[in-house]
Amino acid sequence: IKVTSVPTRPIEGQKTGTSGLRKKVKVFMQENYLANWIQALFNSLPPEDFKNGLLVLGGDGRYFNREAAQIIIKIAAGNGVGKILVGREGIMSTPAVSAVIRKRKANGGFIMSASHNPGGPEYDWGVKFNYNSGQPAPESITNKIYGNTLSISEIKMAEIPDVDLCCLGVTAYGNFSVEVIDPVSDYLELMENVFDFQLIRGLLCRSDFRFIFDAMHAVTGAYAKPIFVDGLGANPDSIANGVPLEDFGHGHPDPNLTYAKDLVDVMYAKNGPDFGAASDGDGDRNMILGRSFFVTPSDSVAIIAANSQAAIPYFKNGPKGLARSMPTSGALDRVSEKLNLPFFEVPTGWKFFGNLMDAGTLSICGEESFGTGSDHIREKDGIWAILAWLSILAYRNKDKKVGEKLVSVSDIVKEHWATYGRNFFSRYDYEECESEGANKMIEYLRDLVSRSKAGEKYGSYILQFADDFEYTDPVDGSIVTKQGIRFVFTDGSRIIFRLSGTGSAGATVRIYVEQFEPDVSKHNMDAQTALKPLIDLALSISKLKEFTGREKPTVIT
Ligand code: VG1
Ligand code: CO
Q1: Is 480 within 8 Å of 347 (Cβ atoms)?
Q2: Complex confidence, ipTM
């Protein structure tokens, strides 16, 4: 194939955040913006990681993916990649890309998604690169890419026509080829190996169990029917918003109590379904609901871990180890203590779990941000989490006759609290604040941390320690700093402050609060009521209102 060298100049601001490069679509549409970053990526990888190699390409179906797919394919070909596997219509969820990379032994893959950020001409676009075990590229690579975007001068573009992504099959262009693949089949096969589909089918086919899944017009729309309906016997009407749309139907494809409000309303209505779930733009997040009951993600991962061995064939020998991101509540810690399992606390973002999984010391992990997953792949996995919950419910109810009361989602959660205690948890998000005020607040908090002393009184709480979270990867020894400011009190309560690394405008402040409650008689309290004193303390410690001018958070989870 013929390769043209296209001259270019560095464009500022191409540093990746928590999960890939995310900007407004309009920014990505500037001349060479995407091309520069993709070329910088090839300039950063060792040649043996892509020359004549195999890469995977998928996305969540958002606006600009079609154009972007063609740009990525041409630059990959221009840099000597041998073959690209691309999902039909450019569609493939983040977990499916990870699964395909692993199954087909690819060198890596691209995911065209800004995840839970809204899509459309006025909204966001994004791209992530995953490595050969399916894990998000480590910071050592993303930092190199950023460095290369600052000095880039040429883009290597193959002169090939736009590839037709509609039909399955291989098209060859000299020594380069593109194969359009079904985005679901490899992933479905993996799910069938991880879970007992017969067991789940038994639950979903019951006349006394109602299930609903909201795909939020995002990528899991393409997976819902083949998996839940065709594979597991769910009623076709149980899938809501099941068609992926370029603008997610004007929605914000983030499965939480604010943005998945339609589902929440259905689940909290009188006589609502028994189980409801939703997933985000690129299919790696999940929200789990029972009838009039919300499962906080920090509890969800703990409950999946505690029940995994009994209910999920993949874990029949028990999980190898457990891990959570730092701001995620300590509910999982208690499970690891009881099951006597290795336990890890990592910074926010899935990329920190991969090394532990590759080293064979981690099986199940999660984040408070609706991310749950395991070492079956190297990304969080929304449908996996839903199937894990369905497995637990199916296992608990497998001998129940029609007419007998079923064990519900809330029964399972309350039993868990009774056994392990309840970690009350909430996160307050202040989205798109002025960057200046938000940065000043963080500086102010860092200063406060540096002067803090154990034993100091903060209202009725006594400080155990305060710090800015730092992590040393136990596998490769790499160190990351400034991962979130923590105030940890002697009763185990915690307040954490971070700035989001996934936004595309301004600064999003996140406050995480947690308090442990061993007393069963208090477990039914509303989380917001139970955490009120700690939330008030967080607002006063940080002077948030003063720094950001915000009276109220935009999202509470
Ligand atoms: C957020 C979440 C983090 C998650 C990340 C990517 O990051 O807090 O836990 O890993 O999004 O999720 P931040 O830096 O905005 O807090 V996804 O589904 O958007 O790829
Ligand atoms: Co996502």
Answers
A1: yes
A2: 0.97
